[in-house]
Amino acid sequence: MNQSAPEDGSRPTDEVASGPATTINEGMDEGALAEMIGDRDAGGCTEWVEATHGQEAVRALSRLSDEEREQLLAMVEPDVAAEVVERLPEPQAVDAIEHLDANIAAAILAEIPSDDRVDILKELDAPGAEAIICLMEAAEADDIRRMVAYDEDVAGGLMITEFLAFPTTATVSEVLRDLEANAEKYADFNITYTYVIDEAGALVGVVPLRRFLLARRGATLDTIMIPDPVRVTDLEPLVDLSIRFRDEPYMGLPVVDATGVLIGVVERSGVEHALAEESDEAYREALGIIGGEELRSMPLVVRSRRRLAWLSLNIVLNIIAASVIAMHTDTLEAVIALAVFLPIISDMSGCSGNQAVAVSMRELSLGVTRPSDLFRVLGKEIAVGVVNGIALGVLIGLVAFLWKGNPWLGGVVGAALTLNTMIAVSIGGCVPLALKGLKLDPALASGPILTTVTDLCGFLLVLTFASMALAKLT
Amino acid sequence: MNQSAPEDGSRPTDEVASGPATTINEGMDEGALAEMIGDRDAGGCTEWVEATHGQEAVRALSRLSDEEREQLLAMVEPDVAAEVVERLPEPQAVDAIEHLDANIAAAILAEIPSDDRVDILKELDAPGAEAIICLMEAAEADDIRRMVAYDEDVAGGLMITEFLAFPTTATVSEVLRDLEANAEKYADFNITYTYVIDEAGALVGVVPLRRFLLARRGATLDTIMIPDPVRVTDLEPLVDLSIRFRDEPYMGLPVVDATGVLIGVVERSGVEHALAEESDEAYREALGIIGGEELRSMPLVVRSRRRLAWLSLNIVLNIIAASVIAMHTDTLEAVIALAVFLPIISDMSGCSGNQAVAVSMRELSLGVTRPSDLFRVLGKEIAVGVVNGIALGVLIGLVAFLWKGNPWLGGVVGAALTLNTMIAVSIGGCVPLALKGLKLDPALASGPILTTVTDLCGFLLVLTFASMALAKLT
After folding, report:
1. A-contacting residues of B 70-129, CB under 8 Å?
2. DSSP at B94
3. With a cut of 0.85, is the ipTM above it?
C-alpha cells in the first residue's frame, strides 16, 4: 500500500509490542488530530496516522471537516496520505481527492493498490480524473485508463494490475534475481502465482510460487510452468466469477483481453469485496438511500437533498395511489370502518411483495435464477401468494367481522387482502427479473413499482368489493 | 478443496482447451443429471460434475429435488460430492448433509475447507453435527468443535485451520522437504505465510514464502523469520477485522487464543465474504425474509410458513396501529377526506425512517458509529427531519388545500406529516444503534419497530389535529 509498509503480515516489533492496535489511543481526545491539522503540525499528524489504528482511526478521520481532511492529505507525505485515504469511507476519500491539487492527488493515488485507485478515479468527474491520470507514469496511466473504462461488475473492473509475469525463456535464477532486486516494488504484490507470457504478452502458463522452491536454478519457465492455465476474459461478469471462486479454491485468476494478452489478476478477495458492495448497495437502495452512500458527517444540505429526491418521487406515487380512495369517498362515507383497513392492506401487501423481491434478488446474485426464468418464478410465487393470501385474508376478515359483527365487512376486507397478496408476491417476484433483463437496477426500482401497484390495486379492491356489497355493509 | 484438485490456479489442459467453463453444456438438457441419478449411474454423474461449471452447474444442482441431491452425494466419491456441496447455495448444502448417513457426510466434509465445513456444521442440529464430528480424525475433530463454538462474526469463527507452522529450530531445508512430502495435503493451503511457533505452540514469528527462495538451506527459522508478527485474538470482532484489512495490505492474519497459541488464520477473502454475508442478511431481513435464506426450490410449505411468520407479526402490529383510526371514526366521518391521507402519511413516514435506518446500519458496519453515539446521531437526524419534514409537509398540505379548497385541511395534514417525519427519522436513526447496544439484531427488528411507532404517531397526529380544528374542517 505504501513504500514504507513492512513486508507481508508483519509490523516492526516496537509497534506490535505496544499492544493490540484497536486499543491504541482509546482514551485520546478526538480533537487532538484536528488541532494538529490546525497548527499545520505535519510531524504530529504523521505520527498520529502511524500510531492510530482500528475504529479509533476510522472514526477520528471520518469526523474531520472536509477542509481538515484536505489539509491533512496535502500536509503529510504521499505514503502517509495514502494510508489515510485507505481508511476513509469511499465517499469521503473521493471528496478529498477531488479537492486536492492534481499533483498531490496523483502522488497519493500512486501509493494505493490499483483496484482501489480505479474505484476512486471512477467516482471523480472525467476532467478531474484525467488531470490526475496525466500526471502518472505513462505505462501506469494507460493501465488506469483501460481499467476505468470497465464496468465495476466485470473482471476488468475488479482486477488488479500488480502481478508478476515473465517470458517463457526466463530461468528460475533470473526470476529470483528479479524478485530480490525489486523486493520493495513487489512488497504489495500477491505473488502466489507467477505468470508466463509469450512475446505478444499472451498468457501461456503459470508457476505457483512453491514450484520455485524446488526447481533447478537453471530451468526455464516453460519447463516448470503449468501450461494453458484457467483464465477469465476481461468482460466475465461478477456472478460468474463468484461461482468460479465458490467452485474451486483459487486465490486469484489471470484476466486476459480478447486477444489473449494478460492484463490483470482478479483475486478471490476482490470478488468477495465486490459482492459485499453489491449487497450493501441493494440494502441502501431498498431503504431509499439513493445516489451513493450517505455518512452523517456529510453536510446537511447534501443529506437532505438526496433523501428528499427519493421521498418526493414516493410521495407523488403515494398520491397517485391514494387518488383511488378520493374517487370512492361516497363508499367510504357509507362504511367508515373501511378507512381503518386501507393502511393495513397497503402495508401488508408491501410486506408480502418485498419478501418476494428479496428472494428474487438473492437468487439472481447466486446465479440460480436468470431473467428468462420469469414464468417459473411467477408460478412459484403465485403458490405462496395463494397460501399466504388466504391465511392473511382470513385473519383480517375475522378481525373485521368481530369488530363490527358484520360478516360482509369481513368478507370484503379479507377477499381484498387475499387477492392483493397474490398480486403483490407476483409483482415482487417478477419485477426484479424483468428489470435485470432490461439492464435496469432491480434493487433501486423494484420497491416503488411494487408499492405503487399494490397500493392502487389494494385500495381499488377494497372499495370496489365494498360498493358491490354496499347494501349488506350499511 | 479436495485431494484430486489440481495445484493452484490450474486445471488439466484438456479441460481448459474445451473452452470457457460457463459455456460448457450450455445447451445440455437440465434433466440429464436427474436422469443419471435415477439410473444410479455414478460414473455419468461424476463426469457431469467434473465437466459442468458456472451458472449451468449451479442451476442444475440447485433444482434437483432434495432426494435427488442426497442420492447424488451418496453415490459419487467424497471428493466429487464435496465439489457438489461447494456449488450449492448453503441452505441446500446443509439440508443434504443433514439427511445423509453420518459416515458419508463426514467423508464429504473432510474434503471441504475448514471454514465452509464449520459453516455447514453450525447449521445442523447439535446431535447431528456431533455424530459427524465424532467420525473425523481426533485432532481435526477437536479443531472443529472449537471452531463451531465461536460466533460467526469473530476471528475464531472466520478463521481457517489449514496453515503451515514450524518450530523455531526447524531449518529451511527441513521445511522444503516437508512441503515436498506433503504437497498433496498442502495443495489447498494458502502458503503465502509460514508461521513459526515455540514449544507451547505460541506464535513467535512469520516467514513470508518469498524469504525461503533466497535463504540458505541450513538456516533455522528463527534467523529468517519476522519476529512478533501482527496477530489477532480469536474474539476480535468482524468490524475491527474489516478495518485492519482496509488499513493494511495483509492477505491473512494469524489468530491466537488467550494464551498466545496459534489456532488459525483469518484471510482477507474470508473477512470480505463475511461482510458480504452480513449485508445480504441485513437486506433479506429488512425485506422480511427471516430465519435463513429462501430459495424457490424449497418446498412450498417451508417457504409459506417462514414468510407467514413474519407477516403475522406485522399484521398484528398493523392492527394495533390502525386501532388509533378505529378510535377516531367520528372525526373521520366528519372529514372523510382525511381517509385519503392516512395511508400516505403511514407510507411516507416509513420511507423517511428507513432511510435513517440504512445510514445507521452502514455507519455501524464501517465502524464510524458506535451505539454510544446515539445522541450525535439523534442530533444529525433531527436536522434532516426538520428540513425534509417541512418540505414534505408543505407539499402534501398544498395538495390537500388545492383538492378541497380548505387551508385548514392542508394545515392539519401538512403539520402531521412534518412532525411525523421528524419522529420517523429520529427513530430510524437511533433504533439500530440501541438494538446493537443491546446485542439484538438491528437489521431484523428496526423495521417493525419503526413502522409501528410511526404509523401510530402519524394516525394520532392527523386525527388529533383534525379534531382540534374540526369546526374549520367541516
Report:
1. 83, 86-87, 89, 113
2. H
3. yes
